Amino acid sequence: MKQFLDQLSEEMGAAFEKAGFDAALGRVGISNRPDLCEYQCNGAMAGAKKYGKKPIDIANAVAEELKASGTFSSVEAVMPGFLNLNVNEEYLAAYVREMLASDKFGVEAPEKPLKIVIDYGGPNVAKPLHVGHLRPAVIGESIKRIARFAGHDVTGDVHLGDWGLQMGLVIVELGERQPDLPYFDEAYEGEYPEEPPFSLKELEEIYPTASAKSKSKEDDPEEVKQAAKEYHARALQATREMQQGRRGYRALWKHIMAVSLPDLKENYRKMDIEFDLWMGESDVNDLIPAMVDDMKAKGLAHISEGALVVDVKEESDKKELPPCMILKSDGAANYETTDLATILWREKELKPDKILYVVDKRQELHFVQVFRCARKCGLVREETGLEFIGFGTMNGPGGKPFKTRDGGVLQLKALLDEIAEKMHTKIRETENADAPMSEEEAWQTARITALAALKYGDLSNQAAKDYIFDVERFTASEGDTGPYLLYTMARIKSILRKYEEKAGASLPAELAASFPIPEGKAMKALCQDISGFIRMIDEAFAERAPHKVCAYLYQMANDLNSFYHETKILAEPDEKKQAGYIGLIRAVLAVMEECIGLLGFSAPERM
Question: Which one of 13, 84, 137, 430 has the fewest CB atoms closer than 10 angstroms to its CB?
Answer without folding.
Answer: 430
